[in-house]
Write a structure and sequence with these properties.
Rossmann fold, alpha/beta, 431 residues, zinc ion binding, two-stranded antiparallel sheet, Mss51-like_C, 2 domains, eight-stranded mixed sheet, single chain, 41% helix, 14 strands, zinc
């Protein structure tokens, strides 16, 4: 497997986390023609369609499995909780306990596995909370929402029916994303010969029509998956419209973009950044520099492959990784002045003290910046924090029409969904 395929293999889908799909091959019992999947006897979380799949997944599963088994044996940690706030507190407490035998913080995959684990949507009990690990009863349609009894399903069914289609849409998006262990990405191998940009079209349907792909004229499930990755370059292009004139943008031969607080989300979407070159055909070199504590080993520039047409025209994409905070990178000899700095879903309000020196550096340099948020509430908080630091806000907490249209499930809220890059804030320099 390639490093990208290995990374995707570690990630578990909602169905895998719920135990209704094989933790290794992602197939349901119906897919493989068996009556039911069997669960790991130690942790009782991961489910498998066969012994061979269990064996193949063991290297990814074994350490977390042992930690979960140890937690299961710590009975004092399994106090009852019958409402959402108590459930969330217990989940956080459990994740702290799980990190001890691992001797490290939980990975994002392990956190998701614990936060999204099956629970009764009425009484918030897991299978572990029930006598003899009694299995929960899944919704027969979406397969990821559970109740502990038919009585509780009677209470919850009406509420769930209003959301079940959204859950099913979310699952169908995941099926497309993880087909053949690769995410579905799209960047048309053509240039914007009409020189329409800027501005961009008014919405996603207009964009797909402009980029001349007839199968994407109407927003369907496949399109929603594509927007989750394509949201990154389109959000950047929309911000560039605000900071630069049409003449300046279309005359650039090299563009440098800094992505702060970068994570696996940006790494897995790197291919779609070529769309910036397709929309701005005069660019010969596009440099994408990802800076964040989750980045892999530092490198100052890796050439990325381009589409056949860009390759023939000798156009280049170069990506660099810096596993550090942005202000540390900014004070290093590797720093290069960007045309724009972007922070995708960085949740400024969650780590205000850590972000303050980075924002201070950006304000000092007067770099054009855009931050995105999952929700309007988060975006409003971002603007308040930025203003308290003396930031000159150009666009504050505005809905981003290039946000992802693929629904994702809130990890610590019941029946709540979010979208990547749904709101945006633009700023530059001090007020």
């Amino acid at each position: 497997m390639t490093s990208k395929e290995l990374e995707l293999q570690k990630r578990k889908t909602y169905l895998q986390i719920s135990g209704t799909a094989c933790s290794n091959c992602r197939k349901t019992s119906r897919d493989v023609g068996v009556e039911s999947l069997f669960r790991c006897s130690r942790c009782r979380m991961s489910a498998y369609c066969s012994k061979s799949c269990q064996k193949e997944d063991f290297s990814n599963h074994k350490h977390f499995c042992a930690a979960v088994e140890e937690l299961h044996n710590f009975e004092e940690a399994w106090y009852s909780c019958n409402e959402e706030s108590e459930w969330n507190k217990r989940q956080i407490y459990h994740m702290q306990l799980l990190s001890a035998p691992l001797d490290r913080e939980l990975s994002s995959y392990e956190r998701n596995a614990w936060l999204y684990q099956p629970k009764c949507h009425v009484c918030f009990r897991t299978s572990k909370d029930l006598q003899n690990y009694q299995p929960l009863i899944p919704c027969s349609q979406c397969l990821i929402i559970f109740c502990c009894s038919q009585e509780h399903w009677t209470q919850h069914r009406e509420k769930h029916q209003t959301l079940c289609k959204t859950y099913q849409l979310m699952i169908n998006c995941e099926r497309i994303r993880y087909q053949d262990t690769s995410e579905t990405l799209w960047a048309p191998e053509e240039w914007d010969e009409s020189a329409i940009y800027p501005p961009l079209p008014k919405d996603w349907n207009g964009y797909f029509k402009w980029r001349k792909n007839s199968q994407f004229i109407q927003l369907d499930t496949l399109c929603r998956v594509i927007t989750n990755s394509l949201s990154l370059p389109l959000t950047i292009l929309s911000a560039l419209e605000r900071f630069y004139t049409r003449h300046n943008l279309r005359s650039l031969e090299e563009m440098v973009i800094h992505i702060i607080g970068a994570s696996q989300y940006e790494i897995l979407a790197l291919m779609t950044f070529e769309e910036i070159m397709h929309v701005l055909p005069n660019i010969k070199i596009l440099r994408i520099i990802l800076i964040g504590l989750e980045m892999p080993q530092q490198n100052s520039g890796i050439p990325l492959s381009c589409c056949s047409r860009c390759t023939e025209a000798n156009r280049k994409r170069i990506c660099a990784f810096y596993p550090m905070s942005y202000h540390e990178y900014g004070h290093s000899s590797n720093y290069t002045t960007p045309h724009i700095t972007v922070g995708f879903n960085i949740e400024l309000e969650e780590n205000t003290e850590l972000w303050e020196p980075t924002i201070e550096f950006l304000l000092e340099k007067e770099v054009p910046c855009i931050l995105t948020s999952y929700s309007k509430e988060e975006a409003i908080q971002d603007v308040k924090i930025l203003k308290s630091w003396g930031t000159k806000i150009l666009v504050g907490a505005k809905e981003n029409k290039w946000g992802s249209t693929m629904p994702l499930l809130e990890p610590q809220k019941v029946d709540k969904f979010y979208h990547n890059n749904f709101f945006k804030t633009l700023f530059q320099g001090r007020s």
